[in-house]
Amino acid sequence: MYVHVNAAVSVDGKLSSRRREQVEISGADDFDRVDRIRAAADAVLVGVGTVLADDPHLTLDEEDRRVQRLRDGRPGNPARVVADSRARTPTDARILDDEATTYLLVNDAADPDRLDALRDAGAEIVSAGGDGSDGDDTGSEDGENAHAGRVDLRAAFDALEREGIERVMVEGGGEVIFSLFEAGLVDELTVYVGSLVIGGRGAPTLADGEGFVDDFPELDLTDVERLDDGVQLSYET
Ligand SMILES: NC(=O)c1ccc[n+]([C@@H]2O[C@H](COP(=O)([O-])OP(=O)(O)OC[C@H]3O[C@@H](n4cnc5c(N)ncnc54)[C@H](OP(=O)(O)O)[C@@H]3O)[C@@H](O)[C@H]2O)c1
Ligand SMILES: Nc1nc(=O)c(N)c(NC[C@H](O)[C@H](O)[C@H](O)COP(=O)(O)O)[nH]1
């Protein structure tokens, strides 16, 4: 699986405000670049935190790109994938409409009734990861067991590859991006730095989770480009 992480941050590295409401950091050219990356991908992945905060749609804006994908024998829109251990995605979420296939990555802790309701709402359920009974399953609160009970992303990607998905674009948020770096699953990172300060010790950043204390993943800077009123940085791992 080729994993391309893309996100937009403020100069101080924030993905959005401490209220976790969507902040438009990108300008028109950067959003067009995002659309191009989506069009090249087989799937677009976010965490359930982003679904709950932004209710994103994650489809292509540019009709020409959709038509070109169809000409190439690919679905018009890339599939949508949500890392959602306990199936918290609302059944009326925009990503569950029929404009693209949507996979929910869950683990054994997910309530079967919720899974049935989400299947009825159009989701494809992919189970990957234990129920956290071997550790705390509250996620990020308890640093030591922060990942117990969350989706096993490597196992989930193996399952998605069996569905024919070979290239995934990850749009965030900070919890999922950290887990991908921690699991050594990131191949490419592009970051748009908008010329604004968001601030806030509780605001989400590019990579949250517990954070590294050593063995920091090092990246190769491959390109720097002015875009809109900000800068776009490109890295390879
Ligand atoms: N500026 C940008 O480019 C951009 C992009 C995306 C999002 N955002 C902003 O970022 C914020 C959301 O970010 P976020 O960090 O709170 O949420 P997130 O990363 O989108 O989702 C985190 C949630 O995903 C679930 N998850 C399942 N498996 C996981 C795993 N292996 N590792 C990590 N998480 C896993 C966890 O919930 P469960 O335990 O319930 O599964 C976790 O709480 C919003 O404010 C949004 O507006 C900004
Ligand atoms: N590249 C980028 N620049 C931004 O300024 C910003 N706020 C996001 N945020 C990413 C997040 O994942 C959003 O929820 C989706 O970008 C919404 O996607 P739709 O337009 O609904 O398809 N992404």
From TrEMBL:
<protein>
    <recommendedName>
        <fullName>2,5-diamino-6-(ribosylamino)-4(3H)-pyrimidinone 5'-phosphate reductase</fullName>
        <ecNumber>1.1.1.302</ecNumber>
    </recommendedName>
</protein>
<keyword id="KW-0521">NADP</keyword>
<dbReference type="GO" id="GO:0016491">
    <property type="term" value="F:oxidoreductase activity"/>
</dbReference>
<keyword id="KW-0560">Oxidoreductase</keyword>
<dbReference type="InterPro" id="IPR006401">
    <property type="entry name" value="Rib_reduct_arc"/>
</dbReference>
<feature type="domain" description="Bacterial bifunctional deaminase-reductase C-terminal">
    <location>
        <begin position="2"/>
        <end position="233"/>
    </location>
</feature>
<feature type="compositionally biased region" description="Acidic residues">
    <location>
        <begin position="133"/>
        <end position="143"/>
    </location>
</feature>
<keyword id="KW-0686">Riboflavin biosynthesis</keyword>
<dbReference type="Pfam" id="PF01872">
    <property type="entry name" value="RibD_C"/>
</dbReference>
<comment type="similarity">
    <text>Belongs to the HTP reductase family.</text>
</comment>
<dbReference type="GO" id="GO:0009231">
    <property type="term" value="P:riboflavin biosynthetic process"/>
</dbReference>
<dbReference type="InterPro" id="IPR050765">
    <property type="entry name" value="Riboflavin_Biosynth_HTPR"/>
</dbReference>
<feature type="region of interest" description="Disordered">
    <location>
        <begin position="126"/>
        <end position="146"/>
    </location>
</feature>
<comment type="pathway">
    <text>Cofactor biosynthesis; riboflavin biosynthesis.</text>
</comment>
<dbReference type="InterPro" id="IPR002734">
    <property type="entry name" value="RibDG_C"/>
</dbReference>
<dbReference type="InterPro" id="IPR024072">
    <property type="entry name" value="DHFR-like_dom_sf"/>
</dbReference>
